[in-house]
Automatic annotation (TrEMBL):
This is Peroxidase. Its cofactor is heme b. PROSITE patterns: DYP_PEROXIDASE. The keyword Oxidoreductase applies. NCBIfam families: Dyp_perox_fam. Belongs to the DyP-type peroxidase family.
Amino acid sequence: MSQQPIPLPAPTDLDLNNIQGDILSGLPKKTQTYFFFQITDVTLFRSQLVKFIPLVKTVAGVLKDRKAIEDHKKKGDKTLITMVGVNIAFSHKGFVAMGIDDANLTSTEPNFELGQRQDAKNLGDKGTGDIPNFVPEWEPAFLQDIHAVILISGDSHRTVDKKLQEIKEIFGLAPSGNKPSIKEVTTIVGDVRPGKESGHEHFGFLDGISNPSVIGFDTSPIPGPKQVPAGVLVTGHDGDVGPTRPDWAVDGSYLTFRYLFQNVPEFNQFLKENPVPLPGLTPEEGSELLGARLVGRWKSGAPIDLTPFNDDPELADDPQRVNNFRFQAEATFAKMCPFASHIRKTLPRADLEDPPLNISIQKNRIARRGVQFGPELTKEEKQSGKTAHGRGLLFACYSTSIKNGFAFLQETWANNANFPPGGASTGIAPGLDPLIGQGNRMITGTDPNDPSSTLPLPEFIVPRGGEYFFSPSLKGLTETLAAAA
Ligand code: N7H
């Protein structure tokens, strides 16, 4: 039987001037500041918001910025162009404080309604007490109520700090004579890592390779997982499984923020102490292989499903191949990629999508927009194998459902030792996500020659804060949040 060409779905009609830029395009950044605050004077805040809204960068704005960066690079100019991008998002507590009825956003989203401080118990974060009095072991700032966050991305601290000052003046926090309408809770600065580590997170792995590509928006996606309908990321569009949205809640997205500390020297020490014992590998190569098998990719970004025993930087640099894999099935159990490796846990591809399960995972996709924070490793930390300075990832992701997106990935996949189910008939549980899994931390399948061997894992990533937000459209900001006094 000859194969029929698969018809492409019709492009989605997205208003790129109405959607905040970080949602679909990611604000361009070398540095990014997160300014978390409480609203203390609602009437005043709403009137000051009118002056803030023109600063918000839309998707159309980001596309323009990206074009300017591309043109600048084409000229061979290695300097950075001055650039800044501002977005804003509100928590459920923020909407309540403002007197905004956000029932449309909470009705099918229990995580958003609960707030992340309480939901942290469900996510597996350490802490004391039970919901609704759970106290996670977080930074004190995140134990306070947070009503909203302003994200400011840019080319340099100078540009971003200047914009933050301008914003503070609008809301009366700087000596401008304006009365304050907000109170700062905390400000966190993230920075892309320097030099050749740019684009790599603190454990050293290239990040940001695989993100959902959106039908009708990403017109030339690289080969990989199926494109998602716009409604997976943008409310009110095809693929949004939430309720029918009122006007103000269309063209928005839920933003999950997590303040994740990474124990980098301890991670490196662990790899050093547990090299994969494959014949022919030096201990260093065995340690590198273990790291790759925990993540599912080599540090270069090359997926181990395609190159299981050697890094392949050429493959990593090839957009046609770097994300074009489905995970090998049960027959090659654990030979290629451990079932519990981070990228297999968080996007199990053929494990769920192919027969016999045929489960669609489109609604579980998230758009990740993180940035690193904290300094590079010091000599002392490298020598001692112990963290002395806080560093990690300001994890941020967007989707039209936290319940199907971030929370599902964390609770039902990462924290579940029996997921993905591919190895079930072998009787060997895959174990937890070795990076973000919370609970009885262990993984199987790191040794390709002994798939049942179990490796207990220390904690490599420690959550120290976070909140769930909703990033409204420009129309929502202008007509409902700012105007309705
Ligand atoms: Fe993960 N890491 O450095 O090892 N992540 N992640 N993540 N993550 C990915 O494919 C990392 C975290 C996802 O589409 C890569 O783009 C670190 C959370 C998803 O194939 C690397 C932290 C959640 C994917 C890392 C962290 C996820 C993904 C490979 C925390 C959600 C894409 C790069 C400090 C609950 C899967 C790439 C796909 C990829 C790392 C956190 C989810 C290198 C260090 C909390 C969906």
